[in-house]
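REQUEST ID: PR-0412
SUBMITTED BY: lab tech R.K.
PRIORITY: routine
TASK: structure prediction, single protein chain
INPUT:
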Amino acid sequence: MRDPTSPWRPRRSWWSAVPLWCAVYLAAIACATFVPQQGWNPDFGPVVPHDSFPADCSLCHTGGDWHTLRADFAFDHARETGVPLLGAHAGAGCLLCHNDRGPVAQFAAQGCGGCHPDPHLGRLGRNCADCHEERSWYPREVITLHDRTRFPLVGAHAAAACFRCHPGAQVGNFAGASSVCVHCHQADFARTANPNHAVVGFSTDCETCHLPVGWQPARFAHPASFPLTNAHAGRLCAECHTTPNSFTGLSADCVTCHNDDFIAASEPNHGAAGFSTDCAQCHDTRTFRRASWPHPGAFPLTFAHAGRRCTECHVGQVYSGTSGDCSSCHLDDYQATRNPNHAAAGFGLDCRQCHNTMGWRGASGHPTSFPLENAHQRACTACHQGGVYTGLNPACASCHLAAYNATTNPPHVAFQMGLNCEQCHGTVRWGQGSWTHRFPIQGGPHGNRACFDCHNNPANRLQFSCIDCHEHRQSEMANKHDEVSGYVWASPNCYACHPNGTH
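STATUS: complete
OUTPUT:
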C-alpha cells in the first residue's frame, strides 16, 4: 500500500499504456472529481472540498506543480462569497477556515467562538467584539471597559499590567481579583517604616490615607483641632512626632515645636519683652517671620506706620507706656521743617492737624474759609511771607494787586473795575476771566474789538461811543432815522434804541 501522506502520482508503466486521447480524458476527470485526499500536501492542512470549484484546475494551480498556486492567483472573497475579509482575516490562510471540520457557514453562525477558542472560559460573555476587533486580537479600550466594573482603573492602577491584579491574565483568566487594597498592597503595608503602619495599628484600608494617583504622599486627615495648613502641610510626620511610631498625646501648643524660634527672636526680643508663648497671637502658619500682632486701636498702624519694625518706635524693648503723640517720634521732623518753619510759626505739636500717615510731605488742613484749590496749591511761603501765618487778609488784591494794575485787556484801573477778583476770575488760571459784557461783543460787527474802540474817552473809560465808528456817519444816520421821533445823534440815544447792537 502507498504512503497516504505522499502526493499521489500514477505509475509510469500504467500511464504509458493508455492512448494519448484517453490519458487526457482521464486526467481531466481526475482533476475535477477524483483527486484523493492523500494527494494534498500535508503542510497545507486538511483537504478543502473542491466539489463546487470550477473544473478548470489551471485557474488556480500551475501546470507543473500540483501543490503551488499560480503567481497571479487572486480570489475576490467578497464578490464570490458575499463575505468580505477585513483586518487580520484578509491575510489568514484559506485552510484556517476552509478545512474538513465541516461547512464554514456552520462555524460562522457561532460568531467568533466558532473559530477562536474562548480563553476566558465563558466568564466574559460570548460577544468578543466588546473587547476585540478584526484588525488585531489585542484588546482595545481596556481602561474604558474596566470602568464598567466595580474597580475603575485610575492613576497608577491604569499603568499596571493586568497580571499584577489578575494572576491568570496571561492565559485569559480575569476572574477572582479583589478590590480590597490590602489584598494587593499587603507587602507595602508591612514594610512601611515611616511611620510603621503595623506597629502603630493603622487600618489596612489604604484609601483612608492614600490615593490611586500615587502611593506617596499620603493624605492622612489630621485632627480638626490642629489642621495642617500652609507651612504645616506637607511635612514629614516625624518632624513633630519625634518619638518613633508615637502619634498620641502630643501638645498642640505652638511653643512645643517653636520654643527655639521664640528664644532666638531678637526683633523684637520676645523673652525680654515678656511676650506670650502663644505664637498664634501674632503669627500664622504661612510664615513664622511675618507677624500680624493687632496694635491697639488707639494707635492703628496705617500706611507709613504699617510694616515697620517694632523697635523703630519701641526703643529699648519697651512695649508699654509708649506715648501715642506724634511728636514723641516726629519732634526732629517738626524742628527741622523750614517750609514753613513750624517752631518759628508757633505751630502746634499735634501733627495730625496737617499731616496723615500716608506721607509726611504734602500737608493739608488750610482753613475752609480759604480752601487751597487749583493754582492756590502753592508753597506756604508763597502767600505767608515772613513766617506770618495768622491775620493774613483773604482778599484777592492782597496777593494779586500787581496783576490787577498790570492788566491792559481790559485795563482794570482805567475802567475802575472792582478789586473783588472772584467776580470774573477763578483759581484755575488768572488769564481766563469770565466777566460778562452787558453789550453783546461776542459776535457780529461788534465782536473781537479792542476795548478802546468803543471806550475812546481817556478822561472817562467807562463811557462808550457809538457814533465814532467809520460806518456811522451822521448824515447817513439822519437819513435812516428821518421818521424816528426825537432822534438825536448821540451815543446814549443809539444804545437806548439798539441795546443788542442790531438794526
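NOTES: Residues 374 and 428 are 5 Å apart (CA to CA).
REVIEWED BY: pending
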